[in-house]
Structures are given as C-alpha cells and as structure tokens.
Design goal:
mainly alpha, three-stranded antiparallel β-sheet, rod-shaped
Amino acid sequence: MNYLKQIGLSLAVSAALLGASDLANAQGRRGRGEERRQENQAQRDQRQQERQQAQQNRQQEQQQRWEQRRQEQQRDSQERQQRWEQQRQQQQRDSQERQQRWEQQRQQQQRNDQQRQEQIRQSQEREQRWQRQREDQIRQSQEREQQWQRQRQQQQNNRDWDRNRNDRDRDNNWRQRNWQQEQQQRAERYRQDWQRRQNYLYQRQRLLEQQRRLNQLRYQQRYLEQLRRDQLRLQQWRYNDYGPYNYRYRRGGSYYETNRYGAEMLQRAINDGYREGFYAGQADREDGYGFNPEEAYGYQDASYGYDAYYVDLSDYQYYFREGFRRGYEDGYYSRSQYGRYSNGSYSILGTILEQILGLQLLN
C-alpha cells in the first residue's frame, strides 16, 4: 500500500510538474505571440502611415495640377470672352452698316416705286386717250363704211356689180378719189400709236429683265429695232396709186376687197408673223418659260412690216397674229408643222397661208 501510495504520489508530483511546465510553455508562447503581434501592428501602422503620406502627396500633386488647369481654363475663358466681345462689337458695326444700307435701298426703292407708279399713271392716261381716239377712228371708219355700203347698194339696185365692169370701174374710181385721204389718215394714226406702243415696250423690257428671260429680251430688242426701221421708212411715206380693187380676202366668215398691193401686204403680214412667232417661241423654250404666244410682245404689237397702204392696221394685225401663233408653236416645240427654213429665214407654207387668207382674184 505504501508502495502504491509512493507511486501515486510520484505520479501526482510528475503530473503537477508537467502541468507547471505546460503552463510555463503556454505563457512563453503567449509572450512571444504578443511580441510578434506588436511588431506586426507596428509594421501595419508604418505602412498605413506610408500609404497616407503617399496619398497626401498624390492629392497635393492632383491639387497642383487642378489648380494649373483651372488657371489655364480661366485664361482661355478670358481670351474667349475678349474674342467674343470683339466679334460682338464687329457684328454690331456690321449690323449697323447693313441697316444703313437697307434703309438707303428702301428709300431708293420707294423713290423708284413712286416713279414707276407715276409712269404707270401717265401710261394709263395715254392708253385711255389712245383708246378714245381709236374708238373715234373706228366709229368714223364704220360710218364711212356704212356710207359707202349705202352708195354701193344704191348702185347695185339697177345693175349687177359682179357682171358689169363699167359699174365696178366707176366704183373703183370713187374709191380712188377718197383713198388718198384715207391712206394719209391711216399713216398718221399709225405714227401716233407708235409712241404708246413704245412706252409699253419699255415697261415690258423691265419685266423681262426682272424675270431673267434673256433670250426673250434679246428677241424683243431685235423686234423693236425692226419697228424703228419701219418708222424711218414711214417718214418717207408718199401716196402711190397701185390700181383698182381686184382682190378679195376672207376674215371671220366675211369677204373684204383690196388691190394687188394690199393683197401682197396681207401675205407678208402672215409670213412675217410666222417668222417672228418662231423666234419668240424659240426664245421662251430656251428660257424655260411656259407656252404663251399671246404674252409675247410681237403678238401684242403685230405691226411689224405695216406701211398703212390699202389695208387697215386691224386687218394687218389680225393676219400677222394668225401667222405668229403658228410660228410660235413651231419654234417652241422645235418643229416645222406650219412652215420651213430656207435661205437663212423661216417662212410659212403656201398651203397654210392660203387657208388663212383665202385670197381670190376678181378679174
């Protein structure tokens, strides 16, 4: 038992010694762990301080760069502001100059408009006077025609004019005695009408210039030059006897009579009208303008080639326009339906001329 007790005591002492040793070892390990922890903490603190210092350095550098950029941007902004102010002042000066020029142009335009209105008013007054004169002339012509018809009817009550040559000769002699005075009156009316048509021509010339219809403008100027040559020719007008009335022509379902010279002049009217219409239609096509023969000055005037011999101006204009419309159509569509080109000029076909005029020889 004692032995067993000694053994138990020895075991207890050994266990106590082992526990104390383990406790000492554990405390030693805890001490060394604490030291390492403190060292690691110190290293972490140092790294943290280094990172903070580096971050502060970067922030300072960024602040410096930002400040530099801000100063550069401020300088750029000041320069842009200066340039904008200079541009604004320049624009103000330009605007003032444009306003002044516009005001000058507006005043000039007002003066021009007033002048045009005055010219239009004067032209309208001349047109009204001309219209009244023309109505008086037509009325007088109708009265003379009625008087002549009454006299002719009285002569035909006892004789057949178509079969009796002597009666026709007497009738022609009567006309001949009064024809010289009629011819002089026709020539004078034509010269008076020339001024009115010339004023209208100038107005139309300005309109063509505004519309930039250069080809039609050139045609109109050429037509005007031909009219001026006609005027110079008519200044040398002298009455001539071209024989009795031995031709008749058709107009509007009725027949009218003239002599050889009058018949030739009506034929020239149709042919000249075709030629001038061809040039006018060709000019409108080249200008890109719409088909409108009645708007052309040649059609409205229709007096080119007229010399006041044996044919009234209204008859001459009627046949001139008949040729003009057909020539304009051929010229505008670049074809030869009604005429042909020969020897450097355009002329209407003979069959078409005969259809329009219906000219007949009486004896």
